[in-house]
Write a structure and sequence with these properties.
This protein has 413 residues and is an alpha/beta fold. Helix content is 34%, strand content 12%. The chain contains 14 helices and 12 strands. The longest helix has 22 residues, at 200-221.
Length: 413
């Protein structure tokens, strides 16, 4: 890991100016952030298949080794990619996909809502931040009168909070099927729930109606999911309004078309829910695999559809925290700590698993149960902001106030 100043000097030496190669190539630098809400299991996404503790602690959900039926796709002899993400193999082989393992925020707890809020604000451990870090990013350069950021979802996400103008992606079915009012219009639904709560008769009818629509929507777009002690309701709450993963390829396609059609759109936020896998997580097949597959398909589609714009695009895929090393009694995993961050793009130093791997032995785990964090995700975000967008030291300090760590450069010249 290098200091901010070293990374910025390197970026400036490569000719990068804030927001663009525009002075030379006319192509703006683009950043796409993908939020996997609900805490995806990074130890299944990029499995440490050579680590004996990985198999010992996950007797039913550990992925088989490379070359075995349903086995991981070997990356570097130590780590393997989940087979449901096979569509990303060409990007890894081309050096345009990399991962940062044991990544996260030391200050974050195990509450989905608090951790997502802090991830989106960019100030973990601080609960009073009013705007989001991508919203702040939009105020640091570029044409303030143009819409330069878009998002997928029913409401503007916290990460884009601020004064900059942003827009929702054009609507698309995306395989979502029926959606409840809670999913389609969260603010309206909250108001209706408050209103109906004043009369027990209406409250019961409202609740039953929404449960029915949620079950119908879930049945249309997702594989059947086991419910134990409210696991399904908990997962939906952890999604925080994010659409199911099944619609991700459609969102990716629409984003590519928007970016190709309007060069002023430089920033985007995509999101998908369904990662709070406390019950029947599965290994190479099952619930988790069924959600990972469309994410891999959508990211590969985005790279393909962007065409020559892909060189000037960086995609970061992140989740609020990881999951426990040990599987639980329901064949799932519980809220954890460290996770894996995905980085894709034409200039990404791919074909590598970055970061310091702490191992999974009990003595190395966070609080004795979770993957430890060795790389703050702000080191990755700040590194991309410096190398890719050309932000200077003072701008980085405004982007991530209170962050005093270094940056992790992930881009090639």
């Amino acid at each position: 890991m290098t200091t901010r100043r070293q990374a910025i000097a390197s970026a400036l030496a490569l000719g990068a100016l804030p927001w663009a190669h525009a002075a030379t190539s006319g192509a703006p630098q683009r950043l796409v952030v993908v939020l996997l809400r609900g805490a995806v299991d990074g130890l299944s996404v990029v499995a440490p298949h050579a680590d004996a503790d990985y198999r010992r602690e996950r007797p039913t959900i550990a992925l088989p080794g490379p070359g075995q039926d349903g086995g991981v796709l070997d990356l570097d002899g130590r780590f393997g990619l989940h087979p449901a993400l096979k569509d990303l193999q060409p990007l890894w082989a081309a050096g345009q996909l990399g991962f940062v393992h044991a990544c996260g925020a030391q200050a974050s707890g195990r509450s989905h809502f608090e951790a997502q809020d802090e991830l989106e604000s960019g100030t973990p451990g601080v609960k009073t931040t009013q705007d989001g870090w991508m919203g702040r990013l939009l105020t640091l350069g570029g044409d303030s009168d143009a819409v330069r950021a878009v998002y997928a979802g029913p409401t503007r996400p916290r990460i884009l909070g601020g004064h900059a103008d942003v827009a929702a992606l054009p609507a698309g079915n995306g395989g979502r099927g029926a959606r409840s009012a809670r999913q389609a219009q969260p603010a309206l639904a909250a108001g209706l729930e408050k209103l109906y709560a004043e009369d027990p008769r209406y409250a019961k009818a409202w609740a039953e109606g929404q449960r029915g629509r949620e079950q119908m929507a879930q049945a249309l777009v997702e594989p059947p999911m086991m419910s134990a002690s409210g696991a399904e309701r908990e997962m939906m709450a952890a999604d925080n309004g994010a659409p199911p993963a099944a619609g991700f390829p459609d969102d990716a396609r629409r984003l590519a078309r928007v970016m190709r059609g309007d060069p002023r759109v430089q920033f985007a936020l995509l999101q998908a829910g369904g990662w709070d896998t406390h019950v029947r997580q599965g290994a190479s097949t099952g619930q988790l695999a069924g959600r990972l597959a469309p994410i891999g398909q959508g990211l590969a589609l985005l790279a393909r559809e962007l065409g020559p714009l892909w060189r000037d695009t960086v995609v970061l895929v992140v989740s609020e925290f990881g999951r426990t090393v040990r599987e639980n009694g329901n064949g799932g995993t519980d809220h954890g700590h460290g996770n894996v961050l995905w980085a894709l793009g034409g200039r990404v130093q791919g074909g590598r698993v970055h970061g310091d791997w702490p191992g999974l032995e009990a003595s190395a785990r966070y609080q004795g149960r979770d993957l430890a964090i060795t790389t703050d995700y702000r080191a990755v975000f700040a590194g991309v902001a410096a190398q890719h967008l050309g932000l200077k030291d003072a701008q980085l300090a405004r982007l991530f106030p209170g962050y005093g760590g270094g940056v992790l450069p992930l881009l090639r010249a």
